[in-house]
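Usage example:
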Amino acid sequence: MGLLSILRKLKSTPDQEVRILLLGLDNGGKTTLLKQLASEDISHITPTQGFNIKSVQSQGFKLNVWDIGGQRKIRPYWRNYFENTDVLIYVIDSADRKRFEETGQELAELLDEEKLSGVPVLIFANKQDLLTAAPASEIAEGLNLHTIRDRMWQIQSCSALTGEGIQEGMNWVCKSVNSKKK
Amino acid sequence: MEMFGYIWQYVYTSFLRYWLKWLIRQATGKCELQRICSGYKPGATRTMKAEFSLKSSKSKVLRGALETKKDDLEQCVNQIMKEKNVKPQKSPMFKESLHICLLQITGYNSLYISVEDLRKVVFSSENQEHEAMLLKLWDLLMPTVKLESRITKQWGDIGFQGDDPKTDFRGMGLLGLINLVFFSENYTEEARQVLSHANHPKLGYSYAIVGINLTEMAYSLLKSGALKPHFYNTVLGTPELRHFHQLYCYLAYEFDKFWVAEEPESIMEFNQYREKFHNIVKTHLQDPDVSLILTDTLAKN
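Running the assembly step on the lines above writes:
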């Protein structure tokens, strides 16, 4: 017992907890992204009813990632999860051009939410493994991201399926938490 | 403590078990498989014990039986009887009993392969069979309402997420759709009853999405081997795909009953209740007499 408690004290301060909210339309790839972050198998994923949550250690942070279902019926519940959010990650299916308008509208509404004001936002332009995927620059333009002035933001192209681009995005997330705390 | 457990297990499986079996064999004049087949009634206990006995056997013939193809099993049983010196006159039931055990054991593995093959088939709008199945699902569940077009918000009425169900099958592929259709086709009344609960304004959930989620539950239970006692008890032979679909029907019906009884606050609680239900099913599967069959319903199947 004695030795254990000494060892515990020697261990550096516990990881700082960060609350990350993962939102976006259904079939955008939020759950696949979540499972990739937690290094879990991604071959048996089903549509999310409600939400999933996982904690991931990264760069001295304990990231509590909330993946909320994206179907229209569930979107009214998104607001129940806004409180105390440190970073918002918004996931877009870059190959689903038919729904660019819908996804842009949802994002714009989120950025108008009072409870999310000033919260840094990372936009994942997901599914870049698909040939028909729009490049991140095109999506950024379509969403008028350059007009965002009230918060830090970043767009990152990625493939939740192959894992490409995810680390870069998460690095930005950790950086933005650090600079916000200062 | 754990260490002792490992050492004991090692000593037991590599030496003691062998000598113990030899001693009992001398005393009773029967080999372990014979004792299992005559000592337990057909079903999970007998078949699980036979499976364990074959798996830990020192004989290649016995271990090989677990990987034998269905059509070669009869011959395989003959070989085992020769190897173990079992006289057919003395134990007339043995051959048939062991044959059934082996059909169940090897059948479980081939059932998993068939299920996995269906899961890997991606739903495709270009495939007419897939499309026909999807439309059939609609007609079975909504006999009085016509689908206005292939891409329509109406799909939401049977619990798909958007206006085209094709993106909702995901990791369960065609398996998810086949299960949904099987339930609606073979237990039509029950399926419509479940759908009406799912469409409840307050206690509701997305019927098709939850169905696909329960297919995942059935699939992972099968994959982990947890469904062995269920299939060993309910199918005295080779389990077929339809037996797997029937298990899905049980889950779909029972989950709905559970959900309605629990009255969750909202659909956002789904995963907690799913886990709770999953644990209940796993507890049932610990019972050697388990059989997860749709009961007290109007089923005539």
